[in-house]
Specification:
- The complex is a heterodimer of chains A (about 500) and B (about 325).
- By secondary structure, chain A is α+β, with helices and mostly antiparallel strands.
- Helices cover about 30% and strands about 25% of the residues of chain A.
- In chain A, a hairpin with a 2-residue loop joins strand 8 and strand 9.
- The longest helix of chain A has 25 residues.
- Chain B has one domain.
- Chain B contains 16 helices and no strands.
- In chain B, helix 1 runs antiparallel to helix 5.
- The chains are: A alpha+beta (about 500), B mainly alpha (about 325).
């Protein structure tokens, strides 16, 4: 059989040994569904591509598609590095992922209803009791409060990785304020602008209707007539690292961005202060953590937040997306029990695999973890962004000893997982002017309204730009790629 | 409209207009210095005075520096402590736009953001050193583009009205100060020197983008009184003080229509009315009337309008909210 030669850009591309490459098989042959795309991309010279890439970066900078770097006191804004070589997912693979995500989000929603309701699962599985009720993310004040509209996880981002066999696995659930969807849409605009002829032939499912779907999802849970409801995006302000996204979503949905000080509560109803007096607010897409929502309930000393907001919420006069208290379901220790939840609430087998997880709160798991620190990835359950982790295989003896003590002191706060090899994807390296494999993950976004979940085709593919790195977080040298989900062949 | 958003809109308009007028003052003064044959302090000192930055400039560079065109330009372009410098105004315009990113159209935002990025680039520094006129022109063009895009890409609605209110009130104050400072300086010319005086008046018209418009109205006859009257009263010239105040008045009437007592803005509209009263076309033919006296009233009156605007529409928005709730 003749080996398909892909000229140009991928000429000396070598698949990273021991990883699943998203676009090429182990022998370096393009995977069948992506042949056409790789031919078109590969036909570009490096000079062409370098020019494309700089056009793309210029466009992102001028549009202000940036995130703020907290460690930088001058409030510097950076663009999220963007690689124009897309991560492509075949129609068949996506159908599987979509089914799995819908199932998972449904089960997680039922779990939250249960935890804040009758707590059936805690009666059934006593070991979950301490794990669930013991976390500060559980809000006992909200027990028996049903959110208006009945939805708790309006917007979720479920992080997926692909193992050495190419199977998608869930790495993490984000059910509070997952960010990044604006980069998906901005990345898509740039791809279409810079390489229209390739995009046109690639048969990619569109993503630009996300804001309309989001607005519809939010309006659907309003306590009043959705058509006459006021929806707002609540931001902590321009210095928040995701501020660009808050304004992006408001702009594309045609709603207003508000700061906590713009809102006030009267008679358990929420109002926004306007130049023509107060106006009632029905749905708040809040991008503020639970703890800063309402000083009355959470932090009496806090100047942030909207006093009385939680009373209005409990009275059913305002919908909050996402509902407060969701953190109890995306906790890293609770994660270990999600397959059980799917069986318990839906009587189905999980469609998507996840990463085997040792919960240090269980004596048996803890003993195993302490014996195998060198092989495991240890995670603090309530930290995010790639912080509070021990990467066993790359760790020093001191770091392992430190984690051993921390685990023994507070076992509830730690879980451990075997290190799963992430898949890699051809990535443009500007400094070397060449394409090399870099590890990627995928965060799809799921919107859930009263009618059930809907998955945006694709999502944010984050890429670890540093050679050998597994860390894809934007705060730690990660970048992003456009994710192209292929349409079914006609 | 959210009160905080209204305030950002207002300041966005003011700062972008200020960028345009500062760049134009510097551009025109640079050209004037080439051929007016004036002593340097009479060319550059007025620039610092117009922006009310006399004390800060003297504090940083000493009073003698006022004749040093380079120092004045550097101060008015790059000095971050000078809130009227181009750098500071561009940063402030962008900060205000960024705070209400969902309100400002993408087209306007890109222009403001690109100007901000350009001003921080090596390219801008090089342009400043090697081609000063081109540098100012680049900034003016960007600001003009942004100002032109507001009404052409945004909904004609409250946010645009507040932006435009900021533009008009900034422009009125600026025109009044430029006219006053120049008028004052001319009087101190050693002797009546017709050619120098004419070139000074023409430069003033160029600062206000009014050269051609003035010529059309006055058939080429340039006198100090004619220029002053034109910049004060000409109803058809979009940068005359009268025109700016009337525009501001119309916008205010949108927010506070006569006979709508529940809405904020009573004091602001009253102050605007009062100032328009003083600006009748015959204002200068009254006994004891002087250009300087009238311009002082304009400068003070405009800042009084801005003060009550801020009280009535932005500052006390919180109170307004809770008061009407209590009813």
């Amino acid at each position: 059989m003749r080996r398909m030669a892909v000229p140009g850009l991928f000429d000396d591309y070598a698949v990273a040994p021991g990883t699943y490459d998203e676009l090429f098989d182990a022998a370096g042959t393009p995977r069948a569904p992506f042949l056409r795309i790789l031919e078109l991309l590969g036909a570009r010279t490096r000079e062409d591509f370098a020019r494309f890439q700089s056009l793309a970066e210029r466009a992102l900078l001028n549009q202000g598609v940036t995130f703020s770097v907290y460690s930088d006191t001058r409030g510097t804004e950076k663009i999220f590095p963007f690689c124009l070589i897309p991560r492509v997912i075949s129609a068949a693979d996506w159908a599987h992922v979509e089914r799995g995500l819908e199932q998972r989000v449904r089960a997680l929603g039922l779990f939250l209803d249960d935890v804040y309701g009758d707590q059936r699962i805690l009666a059934e599985r006593p070991e979950l009791r301490e794990i669930v009720l013991g976390t500060k993310l559980y809000l006992p004040q909200l027990r028996h409060v049903r959110p208006v509209g009945g939805v708790r996880i309006h917007i979720s981002g479920i992080d997926l990785i692909r193992d050495q066999q190419g199977a998608f696995r869930v790495l993490e659930d984000n059910l509070r304020t997952p960010s990044g969807v604006s980069y998906v849409m901005e990345g898509r605009i740039v791809s279409k602008r810079v390489m229209p002829e390739i995009y046109e032939q690639a048969r990619v499912r569109q993503v630009d209707h996300y804001p309309a779907r989001l607005a519809e999802t939010l309006r659907a849970v309003s306590p009043e007539d959705p058509e006459r409801s006021t929806v707002v995006v609540l931001t902590p302000g321009p210095y928040n690292s995701a501020y660009f996204e808050h304004t992006f979503l408001a702009r594309t949905m045609g709603v207003e961005v508000v700061h906590p000080a713009d809102l006030f509560v009267d008679d358990d109803r929420v109002f926004v202060r306007t130049t023509r007096g107060p106006r009632r607010v029905h749905v708040i897409y809040r991008r503020i953590d639970d703890a800063f929502l309402d000083p009355e309930m959470f932090r009496p000393d806090s100047l942030l937040g909207v006093r009385g907001l939680m009373r209005a919420y409990a009275a059913g006069n305002v919908a909050l997306a996402n509902s407060p208290g969701n953190g109890v379901a995306d906790d890293k220790a609770v994660y270990a029990f999600v397959p059980d939840m799917i069986r318990f609430y839906l009587s189905e087998e999980p469609v998507l695999q996840q990463v085997p997880t040792y919960v240090c709160n269980r004596a048996e798991d803890r003993a195993y973890v302490l014996d195998h620190l060198e092989q495991l990835v240890v995670k603090t359950v309530d930290e995010a962004g790639g912080y509070g982790m021990l990467m066993g295989p790359q760790s020093t003896r001191e770091a392992r000893e430190e984690f051993r003590e921390r685990i023994l002191a507070e076992p509830r706060r730690y879980v451990a997982q075997p290190r799963i090899e992430l898949s890699s994807c051809p990535t443009w390296l500007a400094e070397r002017q060449q394409v090399a494999p870099r590890r990627v993950d995928l965060r799809p976004y799921i919107l859930t309204g009263p009618q059930g979940p809907w998955v945006l085709p694709g999502g944010l593919s984050r890429v670890a730009l540093r050679e050998g790195s597994y860390v894809v977080n934007s705060s730690q040298g990660g970048g992003s790629k456009d994710t192209w989900v292929q349409r079914e062949a006609a | 409209m959210i009160a905080r958003v209204a305030e950002h809109c207002f300041w966005l308009g003011r700062y972008l207009e200020r960028v345009e007028s500062t760049a134009s003052v510097l551009e025109v003064t640079g050209t004037l210095a080439l051929d007016a044959g004036l002593p340097p302090e009479q060319v550059w000192m007025p620039v610092v005075t117009v922006f009310g930055e006399h004390a800060r400039f003297a504090g940083l560079h000493g009073p003698a520096a006022e004749s040093d065109g380079e120092k004045v330009q550097h101060f008015m372009t790059w000095e971050e402590q000078n809130f009227s410098s181009l750098q500071a105004s561009v940063v402030a315009a962008r900060e205000n736009a960024r705070a209400i990113r969902e309100v400002v159209s993408l087209e306007c935002w890109e222009v403001i953001n690109e100007l901000y990025l350009w001003l921080r680039s090596e390219e801008a520094r090089t342009e400043y050193t090697q081609h000063r006129y081109g540098f100012y022109r680049h900034i003016r063009r960007a600001a003009q583009l942004g100002l032109g895009l507001f009404p052409n890409t945004m909904l004609h609605d409250a946010p645009l009205d507040f932006i435009w209110l900021g533009v008009q009130l900034e422009r009125v104050g600026q025109t009044a100060r430029v006219l006053d400072v120049h008028h004052h300086a001319f009087k101190r010319l050693p002797s009546k020197h017709h050619v120098v005086e004419t070139s000074l008046w023409l430069s003033l018209l160029r600062i206000c983008s009014g050269f051609e418009a003035f010529m059309k109205r006055n058939q080429g006859k340039v006198t100090g009184d004619a220029v002053a009257a034109f910049l004060l009263f000409e109803p058809a010239f979009p940068r005359s003080i009268r025109h700016g105040l009337e525009s501001a008045h119309r916008l205010l009437a949108e927010f506070h229509p006569a006979g709508a007592p529940g809405l904020p803005g009573t004091e602001t509209v009253a102050r605007c009315n009062e100032l328009l009263e003083r600006l009748r076309p015959d204002a200068l033919s009254q006994p004891d009337a002087t250009i300087h006296g009238l311009l002082t009233q304009v400068v003070d009156g405009t800042s009084a309008v801005c003060d009550s605007l801020s009280d009535e529409f932005f500052g006390t928005a919180r109170l307004l909210g809770s008061q009407s709730m209590a009813q």
